[in-house]
Amino acid sequence: MTTHDDEQNTEQDLVFVEEDEGQKVGPSANPWRILIVDDEATVHQVTRFALAGYRYLDRPLEFVSAHSEREAKDLLNREQGFSLLFLDVVMETSDAGLNVVKFIREELRNDVMQIIMRTGQPGEHPEEDIIKNFAINDYKIKTELTREKLFTVVTLSLRSYAQAQSLLDLAECVRKSNASLERLNASLETKVNERTKELLEKSLGLEEALDNNRSLMRILAHDLVNYVTIVTGNAILALKSKERSELETRISRVMWAMQRQIELIQRVTEFEAMRSGKKSIVIAPAPLVEMVDQVLMTFDESASTKGVKLRVDWLCASSVCAMVDKICFIHSVLNNLVSNAVKFSDSGSEVLIRLRTTSDGMVVIEVKDSGMGMPDEIIQNLFAIDKKTSRPGTKGEKGTGFGMPIVKSLLEKMSGSIEVHSKEKTPGATDWGTTFSVMVKQAA
Asked: Running DSSP on this structure, what letter comes out for residue 329?
């Protein structure tokens, strides 16, 4: 059924001009290229005559003709950019047109060109069989294609082609964004290596300088991996997507993760300056809801992929603010805690983020999992910078072992603290898992 809105849209898309104007096709006109493949010369003439003067999105049509299967294949091998193909089924052989369809879709791997099959002998190849077994976009009996129906078929086909081409263009943008990210990471690695060389050359304590730079690299690798995973996963899904809305969502998440990486790189640089005494962290009121929302956005996809549910339990007003360095608290504190909770959780389990306030003006953020837990020897060394406590996760995920020392160091600089309670999962044990409790001052 055609609605009033559809009629208005069609009128906006189509403009009919005098026949001689419609045939003025030059490089600047950017015409829609229409290929007609039929062994009857009259079919070519009638199609051109019926569509004379037709314009879609203010672009005219350019017609190209072929009269056999071989001629069509040779033409398609030489030329590209066809938007629409009118294809006869029966030509020099009874399946000549079907062979052309296979050639386009399977050999040329062209899934964007719209293919309209036309036949004067519908009994030779029933419509149901062709639609089911061949990747065409429409099937028409030649006698059914009146001038009005021809306009409708062309309009719908060009609209579908334009949408498909837009999706391909967006996919190419994702590919370029991914390549840009790889160059950015390579550039970052080069800069870190240059900084390492500079420290080695200038420092009197060469071993101390090297250890500092190694720690910086571990911090960077530990926190960057979350966003790199988001970028890579969404780029792959975007390249596979055929829906424009989904593709735009994936690109949006890629751009979001890239921006978070830029912030994180800047933050690591500032952290190095802070550690050396050249700069101090900036403590200001930071809304809990904004920080928690960003953490959920960072991990919702990786947690879902692993089968782990993230849940937030608000035991205080979501409008509460904490006195912290916001970006530092998100990237290096909350992200570390939630990342570890997901890492050590089994599929089907839950990671709980609970927020509450205390009567003495503190904000308490608990990150609780029901994962494998930790033995006492790891708990005792968990916050020591010179002790390596890294273990593989439940799916073999690797860590650096430097996350918790960083968390403790930063919280102390924000006048905060952290506690851990853990029970290892062993045969016969019950109620295992780990809970980290972060305490910082509540903003007045």
From this structure: I
Q: Determine the Cα–Cα distance for residues 204 and 164; give it in Å rounded to an integer.
A: 62
Q: Is 443:316 a contact under the CB 8 Å cutoff?
A: no
Contact 105, 111 (CB under 8 A): yes
pTM for the structure as a whole: 0.44
CB 58 within 8 A of CB 31: no
User: Do the beta carbons of residue 342 and residue 308 sit within 8 Å?
Assistant: yes
Residues 6+ apart with CB under 8 A from 128: none
* Nearest-angstrom CA–CA distance, 419 and 367: 11
Distance CA(435)–CA(352), nearest Å, equals 9
- Band of the pLDDT at 279, cuts 50, 70, 90? low
Neighbours of 398 (CB within 10 A): 11
Q: Which of 8-22, 99-113, 226-240, 328-342 has the lowest mean pLDDT?
A: 8-22
Domains and CATH numbers, the chain: 4-145 (3.40.50.2300), 164-280 (no CATH), 283-444 (3.30.565.10)
DSSP states of 265-300: HHHHHHHHHHHTTS-----EEEEHHHHHHHHHHHHH
pLDDT for residue 268:
60
